Amino acid sequence: MKRGDIIIVLVLLAIGLAGIYSYFFASGDSQGTIVIQVDGVVTKTYPLYQEGRDEFLDIQGVNGITRVHLQDGRVCVVESACPDKICVETGWISNSARPIACLPNRVIVKIIDSKDGDIDLR
Amino acid sequence: MGKTRIWLTLLVFGVVTVLSGCSACEEVKLKAYEKTFFVMDTVVSVQIYTDSEAKANLVLDRVDARMEELEGILSAHLPDSDVAKLDGLGGIEPVPVNSATLAVIGTALDYAQRTGGAFDITLAPVLRLYNFSPGNERRPSQTQLKEALSLVDWQRVELNPEAGTVYLTEAGMNIDLGGVAKGYIIDRCLDILRENGIEFGLTNAGGDIGLLAGKPDGSPWRVGLKNPETPSANFAIIEVSQGAIATSGDYERFFIEGGKRYHHIIDPRTGMPADKVRSVTILAGNAQVADLLSTAVFVMGPEQGLAFVEGLQDVEAVIWDREGRVHWSSGLVRVPGSGSVDYYFRRP
């Protein structure tokens, strides 16, 4: 095999491997997004992972405020204008398997495109 | 041309084929679109895969309109619904109802018969006594229960599909479609997706899930089953690629009085919360059947419930009994699974 042939082989192998890598892995580099909806409409989105984040958000729902706590890689509802507090009791979520829903206040907090859960639905 | 050249040509051909194959995959790659609705006191999430945002919006708007329409017909809480119309006309006259109501009640009565009354839509007078709305729950007295139970009998519902009417034969009778309407709405939602050419998609109404197919990459959906003792965790994962899956659990709605837990799945024969199991998950061909069978098998208990499921085609069950033992039907195979759960099931 001539030197030129070897170069062609190496280049083709590199292209092939890059193609395979991008096909199988690059599309999965999304780290997840926190989505907040009010009455079916997306009002805010945040990256799931943000180093050192520890902040509270007040979301205006249909009956009042739903207070959301954002950390690096997880989110929960700490208070909401609702009688049953099912949203608060849901606790922290860190993947797309389970949303937090405050039905009376029509607020939903969910995570999309997370890669860390071993289930798709719940 | 030497051997090397032939080899190189083949290699080039191979690489080009692989790459063009991948780009073809990319070209038909479908994007996920999701919309969330509030229907029948539940968050309903509809997820579809399509290549066009305009189409996704069109289809999801159609789903939205249909769900709102069906809720207006089937919900007990809306004043103009068929269920509300029937209220108070027991023993007086047949009531004309929508074809959707006829279909839902028809299936409900069919399964009431098959389950020996373990599933019964005429349980409404008993459910009203408990009033499972947060903060307003109460434990009925034995006298109240006895009186309400005298009105519970699915055989006293007269369905007349030709005339399009439903007649409750006794004064004071009511119906509650809570255990069956959600599944029906999920199924009709999936119909709309199919009619609009959507191949991959699902509807998830608070854990009652209807599927068009597996995931677009060909793999099945992995559905987590809540651990009744700690519902934020899963005790099992089931792989599902078709039909529907629904769960009834005693952790969903309950209150505690006098140190005793009263949950919302009531045995129509006793008027008391069914206490043989804590959670039942059903896989079935459609969501309406999965929905009502999860309630019926919960009431029947593990032995009778599993035996019943084994006698049905295309239906599977996973049951967590009151001692924490997990039972499953013979059409499911427990396989070594990945991750955090003790049980991982698939259909062989």
Walk me through this protein's architecture:
The complex is a heterodimer of chains A (122) and B (348). Chain A contains two helices and seven strands, in the order H-E-E-E-E-E-H-E-E. Chain A is elongated, with a radius of gyration of 21 Å. Chain A has 122 residues and is an alpha+beta fold. Chain A has a four-stranded antiparallel β-sheet with strand order 2-1-7-6. In chain A, strands 3-4-5 form a three-stranded antiparallel β-sheet. Chain A folds into two domains: 1-30; 31-112, N-utilization substance G protein NusG, insert domain (mini-chromosome maintenance (MCM) complex, domain 2), CATH 2.60.320. In chain A, a hairpin with a 4-residue loop joins strand 6 and strand 7. In chain B, a hairpin with a 7-residue loop joins strand 8 (221-226) and strand 9 (234-240). Chain B starts with a helix and ends with a strand. Helices cover 35% and strands 25% of the residues of chain B. Residues 20-27 of chain B have low confidence and may be disordered. Chain B has an eight-stranded antiparallel β-sheet with strand order 1-2-6-7-10-13-14-15, covered by helices on one side. A four-stranded mixed β-sheet of chain B has the order 8-9-17-16, with no helix packed on it. Chain B has helices at residues 3-27, 53-74, 82-86, 99-114, 124-130, 142-149, 181-195, 287-300, 302-310; strands spanning 31-39, 42-50, 95-96, 157-160, 165-168, 200-205, 208-211, 221-226, 234-240, 244-249, 254-257, 260-263, 277-284, 316-321, 326-328, 333-334, 343-346. By secondary structure, chain B is α+β, with helices and mostly antiparallel strands. Chain B folds into two domains: 31-73 and 179-346, T-fold (Roll); 77-168, T-fold, CATH 1.10.3980.
